[in-house]
# Entry
Amino acid sequence: MLSHLIFIMLLTTKLREVTIINDCIFCKIVRNEIPSTIVYEDDRVLVFEDINPRAPVHVLVIPKDHIASMNEVNAANADLLGYMMSVIPQIAAQKGIAESGYRVITNTGAEGGQIVHHLHFHLLGGRQLKGLG
Ligand code: AMP
Ligand code: ZN
# Structure
Protein backbone atom coordinates (compact mmCIF):
# COMPACT_ATOMS: atom_id res chain seq x y z
CA MET A 1 0.00 0.00 0.00
CA LEU A 2 2.76 2.42 1.01
CA SER A 3 4.79 1.46 -2.06
CA HIS A 4 1.75 2.24 -4.26
CA LEU A 5 1.46 5.63 -2.63
CA ILE A 6 5.17 6.37 -3.15
CA PHE A 7 4.88 5.24 -6.78
CA ILE A 8 1.93 7.58 -7.39
CA MET A 9 3.76 10.47 -5.71
CA LEU A 10 6.87 9.88 -7.86
CA LEU A 11 4.73 9.60 -10.99
CA THR A 12 2.91 12.85 -10.13
CA THR A 13 6.24 14.66 -9.58
CA LYS A 14 7.58 13.32 -12.88
CA LEU A 15 4.41 14.33 -14.75
CA ARG A 16 4.64 17.83 -13.27
CA GLU A 17 8.29 18.09 -14.43
CA VAL A 18 7.39 16.88 -17.94
CA THR A 19 4.54 19.43 -18.14
CA ILE A 20 6.81 22.29 -17.06
CA ILE A 21 9.47 21.35 -19.64
CA ASN A 22 6.85 20.92 -22.39
CA ASP A 23 5.29 24.32 -21.69
CA CYS A 24 8.47 26.30 -20.95
CA ILE A 25 9.10 28.93 -23.63
CA PHE A 26 12.89 28.69 -23.38
CA CYS A 27 12.77 24.87 -23.53
CA LYS A 28 10.71 25.34 -26.72
CA ILE A 29 13.46 27.59 -28.08
CA VAL A 30 16.04 24.90 -27.19
CA ARG A 31 13.92 22.31 -29.05
CA ASN A 32 13.54 24.67 -32.01
CA GLU A 33 9.76 24.70 -31.61
CA ILE A 34 9.69 28.48 -31.58
CA PRO A 35 12.12 30.67 -33.51
CA SER A 36 15.00 32.58 -32.04
CA THR A 37 18.10 34.33 -33.29
CA ILE A 38 20.87 32.09 -32.03
CA VAL A 39 24.18 33.72 -31.21
CA TYR A 40 25.98 30.67 -29.81
CA GLU A 41 25.13 27.04 -29.16
CA ASP A 42 26.84 23.95 -27.81
CA ASP A 43 25.66 20.79 -26.11
CA ARG A 44 24.96 22.52 -22.77
CA VAL A 45 24.32 26.19 -23.44
CA LEU A 46 22.25 28.32 -25.82
CA VAL A 47 22.67 32.05 -26.34
CA PHE A 48 20.05 33.99 -28.31
CA GLU A 49 18.92 37.56 -28.89
CA ASP A 50 16.37 38.93 -26.42
CA ILE A 51 13.09 39.58 -28.26
CA ASN A 52 12.71 42.95 -26.49
CA PRO A 53 16.26 44.32 -26.30
CA ARG A 54 16.91 46.89 -23.57
CA ALA A 55 20.38 47.78 -24.93
CA PRO A 56 22.18 47.59 -28.31
CA VAL A 57 23.51 44.21 -27.16
CA HIS A 58 20.99 42.15 -25.22
CA VAL A 59 21.31 38.40 -25.36
CA LEU A 60 20.11 35.64 -23.06
CA VAL A 61 22.42 32.87 -21.93
CA ILE A 62 20.53 29.74 -20.89
CA PRO A 63 21.27 26.15 -19.94
CA LYS A 64 19.73 23.70 -22.41
CA ASP A 65 18.44 21.63 -19.50
CA HIS A 66 15.51 23.16 -17.65
CA ILE A 67 16.58 24.88 -14.43
CA ALA A 68 13.79 27.11 -13.14
CA SER A 69 15.84 29.83 -11.44
CA MET A 70 18.86 30.60 -9.26
CA ASN A 71 16.91 28.93 -6.44
CA GLU A 72 17.61 25.59 -8.15
CA VAL A 73 21.35 26.14 -8.43
CA ASN A 74 23.27 23.78 -6.18
CA ALA A 75 26.42 21.65 -5.97
CA ALA A 76 24.96 19.18 -8.50
CA ASN A 77 24.71 21.76 -11.31
CA ALA A 78 27.51 24.11 -10.22
CA ASP A 79 29.79 22.85 -13.03
CA LEU A 80 27.18 23.80 -15.62
CA LEU A 81 26.77 27.23 -14.04
CA GLY A 82 30.53 27.76 -14.03
CA TYR A 83 30.63 26.71 -17.66
CA MET A 84 27.87 29.22 -18.51
CA MET A 85 29.92 31.95 -16.83
CA SER A 86 32.89 30.99 -19.01
CA VAL A 87 30.77 31.38 -22.18
CA ILE A 88 29.69 34.94 -21.30
CA PRO A 89 33.04 36.72 -21.90
CA GLN A 90 33.36 34.88 -25.22
CA ILE A 91 29.97 36.23 -26.29
CA ALA A 92 30.89 39.70 -25.02
CA ALA A 93 34.03 39.57 -27.18
CA GLN A 94 32.02 38.26 -30.16
CA LYS A 95 29.59 41.17 -29.74
CA GLY A 96 32.45 43.68 -29.43
CA ILE A 97 31.63 44.85 -25.90
CA ALA A 98 34.35 43.09 -23.88
CA GLU A 99 36.46 46.25 -23.63
CA SER A 100 33.67 48.84 -23.41
CA GLY A 101 31.96 46.84 -20.65
CA TYR A 102 28.72 45.05 -20.03
CA ARG A 103 26.30 43.83 -17.37
CA VAL A 104 25.15 40.31 -16.52
CA ILE A 105 21.81 40.02 -14.71
CA THR A 106 19.66 37.16 -13.56
CA ASN A 107 16.23 37.91 -12.15
CA THR A 108 14.88 35.48 -9.57
CA GLY A 109 11.28 35.08 -8.47
CA ALA A 110 8.43 37.60 -8.42
CA GLU A 111 10.16 40.46 -6.63
CA GLY A 112 13.33 39.84 -8.63
CA GLY A 113 11.29 40.50 -11.79
CA GLN A 114 11.61 36.99 -13.24
CA ILE A 115 9.03 36.46 -15.98
CA VAL A 116 10.40 33.37 -17.72
CA HIS A 117 10.94 30.51 -15.29
CA HIS A 118 13.92 28.96 -17.05
CA LEU A 119 17.24 30.21 -15.67
CA HIS A 120 18.78 32.86 -17.92
CA PHE A 121 21.51 35.44 -17.73
CA HIS A 122 20.89 38.73 -19.51
CA LEU A 123 24.06 40.03 -21.13
CA LEU A 124 23.62 43.75 -21.77
CA GLY A 125 25.96 46.30 -23.30
CA GLY A 126 26.72 48.59 -26.18
CA ARG A 127 25.69 51.77 -24.36
CA GLN A 128 26.32 53.41 -21.00
CA LEU A 129 24.13 51.48 -18.58
CA LYS A 130 22.58 53.33 -15.69
CA GLY A 131 23.42 52.52 -12.07
CA LEU A 132 21.31 49.94 -10.29
CA GLY A 133 20.04 52.39 -7.64
P1 AMP B 1 13.09 37.92 -17.08
O1 AMP B 1 12.25 39.09 -16.69
O2 AMP B 1 14.46 37.97 -16.45
O3 AMP B 1 12.39 36.59 -16.85
O4 AMP B 1 13.35 38.11 -18.61
C1 AMP B 1 12.77 37.37 -19.61
C2 AMP B 1 13.32 37.90 -20.91
O5 AMP B 1 12.99 36.99 -21.93
C3 AMP B 1 12.79 39.26 -21.30
O6 AMP B 1 13.87 40.18 -21.48
C4 AMP B 1 12.04 39.00 -22.62
O7 AMP B 1 12.16 40.06 -23.54
C5 AMP B 1 12.73 37.72 -23.10
N1 AMP B 1 11.93 36.87 -23.97
C6 AMP B 1 10.68 36.43 -23.74
N2 AMP B 1 10.26 35.63 -24.75
C7 AMP B 1 11.30 35.58 -25.64
C8 AMP B 1 11.49 34.92 -26.88
N3 AMP B 1 10.54 34.16 -27.44
N4 AMP B 1 12.68 35.09 -27.52
C9 AMP B 1 13.63 35.86 -26.98
N5 AMP B 1 13.51 36.50 -25.79
C10 AMP B 1 12.36 36.37 -25.13
ZN1 ZN C 1 12.70 25.42 -19.62
